[in-house]
């Protein structure tokens, strides 16, 4: 049992080195109501530096953003959506 948890710990450390900077955040964007809203939100986020990918979904009113956290922060992302008229809140954040 002890051996197993040591192995799990070692694997976890290897899988997430401390220099890893790529983060994923899921945002709730309740103000998206029509087909063009997700594109406006997506475009605003993509303007930021270090954005790897942005997926927006009108049905669930969600945005999933993959970004480099040495270049952009979650605050920057929510600020960018706010700037184009869409308030967003974090549902889930992680690496
Ligand atoms: Cu719209």
Describe this structure in words.
The protein is α+β, with helices and mostly antiparallel strands and 95 residues long. It has one domain: Alpha-Beta Plaits (2-Layer Sandwich). Helix content is 36%, strand content 28%. It is built from three helices and four strands; from the N terminus they run αβαββαβ. The protein has a four-stranded antiparallel beta sheet with strand order 2-3-1-4. A hairpin with a 4-residue loop joins strand 2 and strand 3. Helix 2 crosses helix 3. It binds copper (II) ion (CU). Copper (II) ion binds next to loops.
Sum this structure up briefly.
The protein is 36% helix and 28% strand.
Which keywords apply here?
single chain, 95 residues, alpha+beta, 3 helices, 36% helix, binds copper (II) ion
Write the layout of secondary structure elements.
Layout: H1 2-15, E1 22-28, H2 37-46, E2 51-57, E3 62-68, H3 74-83, E4 89-94
Helix pairs in contact: 2-3
Copper (II) ion binds next to loops.
Task: Compute the number of structural domains.
Answer: 1
Named once each, the bound ligands are: copper (II) ion
Mean pLDDT: 88
- Report the helical percentage: 25-40%
Strand content: 25-35%
Under the CATH scheme, the architecture is 2-Layer Sandwich
Along the chain, the helix and strand elements come as HEHEEHE
């Amino acid at each position: 049992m002890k051996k197993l948890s040591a192995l799990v710990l070692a694997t976890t450390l290897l899988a997430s080195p401390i220099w890893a900077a790529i983060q994923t955040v899921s945002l709730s964007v309740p103000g998206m109501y029509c087909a063009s809203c997700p594109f406006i939100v997506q475009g605003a986020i993509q303007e930021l530096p270090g954005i790897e990918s942005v997926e927006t979904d009108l049905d669930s009113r969600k945005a999933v953003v993959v970004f480099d956290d040495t270049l952009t922060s979650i605050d920057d992302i929510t600020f960018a959506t706010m700037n184009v008229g869409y308030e967003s809140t974090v549902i889930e954040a992680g690496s």
